[in-house]
Structure prediction request, 539 residues.
Amino acid sequence: MNLVSVKSLSVAVGFKNFPVLKDISFTLEKGEALLVVGPTGAGKSTLLLTLSGVIPELVHGKVEGEVRVAGHNPTEEGLKGLAGDVGIVFQDPEAQVVMETVFDEVAFPLENLRYSKDEITRRVEDALLKAGLAEYSSEETDPLSTGLKQRLALASALSYEPKVLLLDEPTSHIDPASSKRIYEVLKSYKERGGALIMVEHRLEYVEGIIDKILFIDAGKGVLCRNFEELVAKVGLEGLTEAGIWLPTPLLGRFFTNAPTVPADRLIPGANTVVKTVNLSVRANGKRILNSISLEVREGEIVAIIGPNGSGKTTLLKTLAGFTRRYTGEVSVLGGPPDYSKVAYTTQVPELQFTERTVAEEVASSLLVRGFSKQEALKVARRELEARGLAHLSDRLLYEISQGEKRLISLLETELLDRKLYLLDEPTFGLDFKNTLSVLSWVRRLASKGKTVLFVTHDSWVLPLLPLTAVVGLSEGTVVFRGTLQELLVRKNVWDRLAFLPPAELAEESSVSGAARAIENYRKKVVGVYEFSKKAQPHS
Prediction:
C-alpha cells in the first residue's frame, strides 16, 4: 500500500482562478524519497503545503484531485488530522520556531502528542544530538542564528518520528558540513521506513537518498527515477533554462567540449572602505565576535564563511550600523558604521520588507534616494520588467515564493546605489539560473568600484566569483583569511569552518593545482549554463 498517493492534483492559491499546480501525480511507499525540483516560483512549496494540510486550512486555496498522506486526506482533515503522522520543515525557520528555549521547542510537539515526561526527555535529547544542537539545549531560541533555527525545526519534526516528512529546502541556511550530517540522519530515517518528500537545490547532498524526482515547471510535473532520466525526458537545455542545478559529474558527461572561460581578475582600489581593529561583540552574556581585525578596499569581493552561529551575520550587522554595542574600532567609508551608508540585504527577506506589494517595496529604495512616489513606482516597474519579474509587480509580498522574495530583496538593495554592499546569504532559495544572475550582478558591482562583502554557505558559488579574499569565522574568531585557492589547500581549517567544497575541488594539495581545478570547474559549469549569456537580468 502506498504511504503517499497523489492523483491529478491541481491547486489554486488565494482567491486566484488559475492553478499553481496542474495535474500532478506520484506515489511513495515506505522508505522512499522524492526530490522535488523546479525553477523559482514553480509551485514546489505549494505542493508541500498542500500535502501537509496547510493549504487550504491556513492558506486559502482550491484543491482538486486525490491526495492521501499516511492514510489521511490533508484537504479534509487538516493539520490536526495529520498530527504525529506527518512532519514538515518550512522554508523559513523563523516562521516555525515558537517556544522560548531550544529544549521546549523540540518538546512542544511531543507534549501535544501526549508522550510521557521521560519519553519526551529521551526523544528531545536524541533529536538535538542528531541535529547537532545538544550544546544549545538550554539556550533561548530568539538569539539563535537562522541556520541554527533551521536545524532546530528539523529536530522538532524528527522527534516524533513521523511516517512522512516534508522538507522545504531544509539546509538552505545550514553550513555544508552540518548539511551533510543532516542528510545522513535523514538517510537513517528513510531506512527505518520513513518517507521523504523534499525540495532541495543543493543536489549533491541527496544523490544517495532519492528514489524519484518530480520536476515542476509552469505548474506541471514530470516524474523520473534519476537525473539521467530527467535529462532524457526534459532535455538538458530545458533543465538549464529552468535553472535546475545538476550534479557537476553529470554535467561533465553531457558537455565535454566547454569553451575556455576567461578568469575574472579584480584590481582593488587604494581607498579603504571597511576597517575593524579588535572588534568584539557580546550579546545575552555570550561573546559573539572576538577581536576581529579586517581591512577591505574599494572594488573587492570578500566571502565570509563559517559554521552556523559563528558570528557572520553579527559581523555584517555591525558594519551596517545595526549593532551598536561593540568594543574595538570600526570604520566604514571613513567614519562610524551607519545604515544610511550601506546597502544591506538581510538573511531572511521578510525582515527588510516594509511595503504591501512588490512594486511598492522596490520603489521604497528609490524614495530613500529622493525620487517622487510616482517616479519611484515608474522606475520600479521598469526595473522589474528588465529582470523578468514584471509578473510580480502587483502581487502582495506574502504571496510570492521565498526565492522570489530573495530576488526582490536584492533588487531593492541594488537600487540604493551605495558604495558598500553587505549581502547575507544572497543566493539562498534560488534556482541555479537565478544564482548565476546574482553572481553576475556582484561581479558588475565590483567592476564599477563597489565593494561587496557577502555571507554564504553555498560553497559551490565561490569558484564562480573573482573573490579577492575569503574570511573564515569560527566561534566569533577569524581562523582563516586568504584566497580561495589557499583555502582549498588548508584542509586543516575545514572542520573549524564547517567547510566542504565541491568534490572536484576537494583533493588539491597545492595552490597552483587548486587554481587549475577552479578553472576546470568554472569551465564545466559555465559552459553548460552559458553563464556569460544567460546570467544577465541584473544588468
